Amino acid sequence: MTDKPSNEEFLRLADPLRRELLAHCYRMLGSVHDAEDLVQETYLRAWRAYDRFEGRSSLRTWLYRIATTACLTALDSRSRRPLPTGLGAPSAEASAPLVEQPEVPWLEPVPDGMVGAGADDPAAIVTSRESIRLALIAALQHLPPRQRAILILRDVLRWRAAEVAEVLETTTVAVNSGLQRARAQLSEVSPSLDDRVEPLPADQQAQLDRYVAAFESYDVAAIVELFTKDAVWEMPPYTGWWQGPESIVELIETRCPAGRAGDLRLVPVAANGQPAFGMYFREGATYDAFALHVLTVTGEGVSHVVMFFGAELFDTFGLSRTLPAGDRASTAK
Question: In the Cβ-directed half-sphere of 265, how many Cα atoms lie within 13 Å?
Fold first, then answer.
């Protein structure tokens, strides 16, 4: 009888897969923190069973099987994680009262670096940016958990139907049927998985520069010009969402605590394979963490902004919770 493999041996073989497993669990759950917990659970289960791993599949495939099973079990007792646009209500008037629902388990953004989605990261072949973009993760939340797993395993990870059937303890016919239904539902609410997310061209990078300048100078006229005509703005935990530049700017003017140039500072980050900014609000001698903006940018302008509140997100993205008011040189922890 062979000795149980050492902890060091298991981690040496399994650790290189941690980020892509985190991306997989994030796609399933829509939460960075839940995904981290499930990856930890996956590694614990795998470690305990590693002496029984017979190598009939690759270690990577085996870990994905454990992670998928853990996610499906977790989803049995958890609600889907929506964005406000996914609640089914029409766009709100900027003058309407804000309705906050902090008890809703809202969708969370994920830092590109946590899931290997950096543009120069070889792991991007597996955890590609188009498969973690916010619109897709929000759309996946509309699928029943097993359909969600089938679509991710087949269309993102490119597993064969027979492999997926083995993981889910079902038939190949059931997998193919579930995939067809999942694709049909996804096509109604999200861009295709085949859409490519490329590095921003120069003109779109210039739009991001204007976005920063407009907010930091609190230039309302410039802010209006940033958005496409049907742009969407949403900001969980508030249930409303707003459409169109005029409505968005009215919301900013009447609801944002900033009111003059210098009240806001924006620090660039990367979330869900998209441009994003940590926004800070000036309080005396410091700028305090305010909200994280995740942007969708097109050739015509900014088409979608999701504004996530919560200082804990700044921790997740490696941003300081406060910045000195007079120092722009250092922004990360």
Answer: 22
Q: Quick check: helix, strand or coil at residue 244? A: coil
Q: How many CA atoms lie within 13 A of 72 on its CB side?
A: 18
DSSP structure class, residue 152: I
Q: Is the pLDDT of residue 284 over 80?
A: yes
pLDDT band at 274 (very low <50, low <70, confident <90, very high): very high
Clarify whether residues 148 and 212 are in a common domain.
no
Asked whether the predicted pLDDT for residue 5 surpasses 90, the reply is: no
Residue 272 token pair: 């869900």
* Residue 183: domain span: 7-189
267 and 185, same structural domain?
no
In a shared domain, residues 223 and 251: yes
Greatest C-alpha distance within the chain: 75
What are the backbone angles phi and psi of residue 242, rounded to the nearest 5°?
A: -130, 145
Put residue 310 in one of left, alpha, beta given phi > 0 → left and psi -120 to 50 → alpha: left
* CB neighbour list of residue 137: distance below 8 Å, 6 or more residues apart: 26, 27, 30, 107, 272
CB 126 within 8 A of CB 157: yes
Mean pLDDT computed over every residue of the chain: 88
* Residue 315: pLDDT over 90: yes
The model carries a pTM of: 0.90
pLDDT tens profile 95-146: 999 999 999 999 999 999 999 866 555 545 444 678 899 999 999 999 999 9
Q: What's the number of domains the chain is made of?
A: 2
Handedness of CA 204, 157, 107, 33 (dihedral sign): negative
DSSP state of 238: B
Looking at the structure, tell me whether residues 179 and 215 fall in a common domain: no
In a domain, 329, yes or no: no
Question: Cis peptide leading into 237, omega within 30 of 0?
Answer: yes
